[in-house]
Amino acid sequence: MESMPKVRRPKLSDAGGDEDHLSALHDDTLIQILLKLCCLAAAARTSILSRRWRHLWALLPKLHFYNATDPRRIRSALAAHEAPTLQELVIVRQDASSGPTGAWLPIAARRLSGLLFCHYLSQRVMARRRAALKLPCFESATGIYMRLGFLRLTLPPSGVFARLSLLHLFQLRLHGMCELGAIVSSPRCPCLGRLLVDDVRGVGGLAIHSESLGQIELYNLPDLQQLTIVAPSLHQLKVQDCFAPVARQPVASISAPHLLQLAWIDDYDQNSVNLGEMAHLQRLVLQQFIVYGKDYIASHNRNCALLLRRFECLHNLVITLHCPPDIANKKYFMEDITRVPDVKLLGLGITACGHSFGASLFHVLRMCTAIRRLNLGLIVAPEHEKLCAHQVVYVISHQAGKPGNSC
């Protein structure tokens, strides 16, 4: 049997004449096409189409690495990168190995003029024995997002993040002598506008002195012992689950005279927490008030009530009433709330766990004689939804019927 003759595949240039029209496009247009792939590996593979495409990936202003198992390839790609500026660098990896990561970080710090997004997908990786990752100073970066799976991170002892406006730190362990507060304060971050720190270990004291910060969000800082914030431009502050009331007394000093929104979803003690003058505050969000409980709950609720009484007038107040599943032999604590600020918008969350909450709801509403809008959120099991709905209708109908109220 005679062998079939080999068929030569036509090149791209053979399909439409002497030259394919796609490769004839300007470099800027081809780069925009490659950016649509949102993956550097996919962009590099387009070099098989034509010699014309071979080095285009190196001109991309944004480099995205997904599921990058070998960080040495990231370092090589950054070293070969030829674009005038690197506007965005995205690294998504499965594991949290520190050593190879440190190899590409210094190159990225020199080249990056935009956003760094470094996300390790592995959760709760205890990396105490691994070498700490050394973060260099990104002098030209505008944003840094790092989620490291609790890898240890050493902050740079010197250098100025001159253009940094956004800093998000998630799931990492701070290591070394340089403190986070020194990094995010004005001398080293003169343009920082938003700071978010979530689930970070090793933050014992956090002292922030910033002229530029407008928004600070702090979540789950289990090692925090003292918080100091001096930020004249700050308009939004959220502190949640940062102080463990059983282990220690919260110690905080806040100086933010132009603050508009405060979410203090944490322990509060008027003797050790100084919130300063907040004459412009419009919105206050508090931690949950426990309706029934043992004697040790009384101090928690009393501090929550003290924070409520601190403010005379607010536009928006958000508070949650929590009724535990077991209320047998528990005290009723709603009488601890003796006054709430004059508010126009009241956000009231209720976790009833099948118990009646009409009296608790009415206790709050009867003190809010000036509200114009009520946002009510119920967290109940499906089998209790009908009962809860009847309670809400009854309480609101009686409250709205009073002169001056329009719930």
From TrEMBL:
Species for this entry: Aegilops tauschii subsp. strangulata
Protein name: F-box domain-containing protein
UniProt xrefs under PANTHER family: OS07G0229100 PROTEIN (PTHR34709:SF61), OS10G0396666 PROTEIN (PTHR34709)
